[in-house]
Amino acid sequence: MAKNLVLVGGGHAHLVTLAKLEAFRERGHVVTVVQPSENHYYSGMGPGMLGTTYTPEEIRFATRQVVEQKGGVFIQDLVDRIDPVARTVFLRSGRTLPYDVLSFNSGSYVPQTCVTQDKGDIFSVKPIEKLLQARERIVEWADQEVISIGIVGGGHPPLR
Question: Can you list the domains of the chain with their CATH numbers?
Answer without folding.
Answer: 4-104 (3.50.50.60)
